[in-house]
Amino acid sequence: MASAVKWTERYRPTSLKEILGNGKAVDELLAWANSWERGAPIAGAVILYGPAGTGKTSAALALARQFGWDWIEMNASDARTAGAIQKIAGPASQSRTFSGQRRLVILDEADNLHGTADRGGAAAMLKLVRDTSQPVLLIANEYYEIEKPLRDAAKGIQFRSVRSTTIAQALREICKAEGIACDPDALMLIAERAGGDMRSAVNDLQAAAEGSRELKLEDVATAERDVKSSIFKVLEIIFKGTSAREALQASYDLDESPEDLINWVDENLPLAYQGEDLWHGYESLARADIFLGRVGRRQ
To answer: What is the pTM of this model?
Structure first.
């Protein structure tokens, strides 16, 4: 039976020295945090930006743990209107905890925060960054999708794609911890297919190796074929089936996380529907993302 714990969470870095492949970015982040500790911050906020799976969120959480800071996080699944930001992040950015801990305010997917869609959220976040008395950390994939005034008010720190050799080394350590004998060629194949995305590589390793005592090169190739075959079968049931219960049951049998399934549906929805049906599809997908975010926060 597959583990209920994803390896990306089990092996998430707990300190900045464990963030691999982005030493320069980690040094810049450390310098910023130390400037807050000295009481003379370089900037009120930083923006960690770069491709998915390069360690941005892990670095933010590791930073808070390493410095003993409390943290509050808002992501795309949260309501990020001006009112929500003022109610949740606003007070957090102005005071320490009751025990005197500094508090880190984290806003994920900051490149998806726009004035119209988020009903003044971008303007509220800009005001928060300019007025903050606690460190604020924004995370984004696309730096230039963030509105310019917000970019100018914060220090940008770039995370780059992780090299395949670095990813393969990390996968080797996970195999060692799990007691799995892994073929080095199999690990390198997973690493190269990940395209610099450490999170994707760890997910692929878990899919191919979990429950086994040995991972061979042919296991990796077979695992990839099986996953692609399975996900497309489920998508066909979701898009073309006549029963919601059947689609739900098919998703239970799929070896994909709910987050990944939502991404697959999002990418393929325009190929299956048009017009008003497409609009309703995206509306339902957005609601699913909101509910998934709530579940994640309450676990």
So the answer is: 0.69
